[in-house]
From TrEMBL:
This is Tnf receptor-associated factor 4b. Pfam families: TRAF-mep_MATH. It comes from Sinocyclocheilus anshuiensis. One of its GO terms (biological process) is regulation of canonical NF-kappaB signal transduction. One of its GO terms (molecular function) is tumor necrosis factor receptor binding. It comes from the Eukaryota. PROSITE patterns: MATH. Residues 1-141 form the MATH domain.
Length: 143
């Protein structure tokens, strides 16, 4: 059973913020055992000295419906948030800063911000969110 999946680090845009997404297929925290959990965190990046802090942009997560678009209109699940400037997760990261693992759950400083109950396993089975044992999650940053 896969506990957590971490994306490769990516940049929000040219000379932008360095980010990483994580997904817990079997949930994390309050969603453990019943939900898909999704998070995004800001990593130390090459251009941090040029950027506005705290991280200011809206973030959207989408779980893609893999239904055949010729047969039915795909119903992607999307959640969007705007970072609160007071959230510790969106302040300029310190190089080498890593969170800790407590009680089998990764703590929020390690995960950044997200949704421990993004979508229930029950809802995921109602459409083609899982196909050929794969799911597709898209993170969009409104720069």
């Amino acid at each position: 059973l896969i506990k957590a999946l971490f994306s490769p680090a990516f940049y929000s845009h040219n000379y932008g913020y360095r980010l990483q997404m994580s997904a817990f297929p079997n949930g994390n925290g309050s969603g453990e055992g019943s939900h898909l959990s999704i998070y995004i965190r800001v990593l130390p990046g090459e251009y941090d000295g040029l950027l506005e802090w705290p991280f200011p942009y809206r973030v959207s997560f989408s779980l893609l419906d893999q239904s055949d678009p010729a047969r039915t209109k795909p119903q992607h699940i999307t959640e969007t948030f705007s970072p609160d400037p007071n959230w510790k997760n969106f302040q300029r990261p310190r190089p080498g800063a890593l969170g800790s693992v407590r009680g089998g759950c990764l703590d929020e400083s390690m995960l950044g911000f997200g949704y421990p109950k993004f979508l229930s396993h029950e809802e995921m089975r109602k459409r083609n969110y899982i196909r050929d044992n794969a799911i597709f999650i898209k993170a969009s940053i409104d720069v």
